[in-house]
From TrEMBL:
Species of the source: Candidatus Nitrotoga fabula
Enzyme class: isomerase
Pfam (any one): TIM
This protein's UniProt keywords: Cytoplasm, Gluconeogenesis, Glycolysis, Isomerase
Protein name per UniProt: Triosephosphate isomerase
Subunit structure and binding partners: Homodimer.
Length: 251
């Protein structure tokens, strides 16, 4: 069975003091947990601190966004090479907050995904439907189209070195989690869709669930056959909660 992967998305939260306390508790807390991998995606200004505090530990880290170009006249942007300089393993691309608040299209997300992979880092590709789309029975169409853009730009084999996070928009930061069955249904769809292109590695795909995962609901979500772990927002800011979720991912 695949090891569970639990990734925290701090979003735009943290201070030097709070991060230090949180990371210290996390590094202490994950010691001795087995059968699970864990990472945190932090705001850009805290990458150096995170790199220093996680050096020599089993916790990996990454960023929450990147610019698609390698370098150039893009004031205020950050390239994947800069992220690599700080030892990042992961970069979230296509989070629904960026798709909605920053108007990122699936085409742009695919370009970001490509630039992350070309630099040897692992993209965490977020996909998911809004409540309106779910109610209109469009979940599979929407998620299918989001995946198709990446396949068009990067090819289906690219998922061998990527993580997919299914994050229904209606479940993010709302306290309204998808039921394990609802999440499983979409995860199975994603796996089948990718396996349809290449049967061999469909089963090895890493598909995380994200959307109001907490210490009480993590275990039942992680028990579903096509859920390989979680992308955790709010609960990743509270050490005890995040550690409880990590524990739920141990085998
Ligand atoms: C997220 O931001 O990726 C997320 C899943 O948030 P939350 O866990 O707070 O719903």
């Amino acid at each position: 069975m695949q090891r569970k992967l639990i990734i925290g998305n701090w979003k735009m939260n943290g201070t030097l003091a709070k991060n230090e306390a949180l990371l210290k508790k996390l590094t202490d807390g994950v010691t001795g947990m087995s059968g699970m991998d864990c990472a945190v995606c932090v705001p850009f200004p805290y990458l150096a601190q995170t790199q220093a505090l996680l050096r020599g530990t089993s916790i990996k880290y990454g960023a929450q966004n990147v610019h698609q170009a390698e370098k150039g006249a893009y004031t205020g942007e950050v390239s994947v090479h800069m992220l690599r300089d700080f030892g990042c393993n992961y970069v979230i691309v296509g989070h629904s907050e960026r798709r909605t608040l920053s108007g990122e299209s699936s085409g742009l997300v695919a370009e970001k995904y490509a630039s992350v992979q070309k630099a040897g880092l692992t993209p965490i590709l977020c996909v998911g439907e809004t409540l309106e789309q779910r109610e209109a029975n469009m979940t599979e169409t929407v998620v299918g189209e989001q995946l198709a853009e990446v396949i068009k730009v990067r090819g289906v084999q690219s998922f061998r070195t990527a993580v997919i996070a299914y994050e229904p928009v209606w479940a993010i930061g709302t306290g309204r989690t998808a039921s394990p069955e609802q999440a499983q249904e979409v995860h199975a769809f994603i796996r089948k869709k990718i396996a349809g292109f290449d049967e061999d590695f469909g089963h090895a795909l890493c598909i995380l669930y994200g959307g109001s995962v907490n210490a009480s609901n993590a275990a039942e979500l992680f028990a579903m056959p096509d859920i390989n772990g979680g992308l955790i927002g709010g609960a990743s800011l509270v050490a005890e909660d995040f550690l409880a979720i990590c524990r739920a991912g141990t085998s």
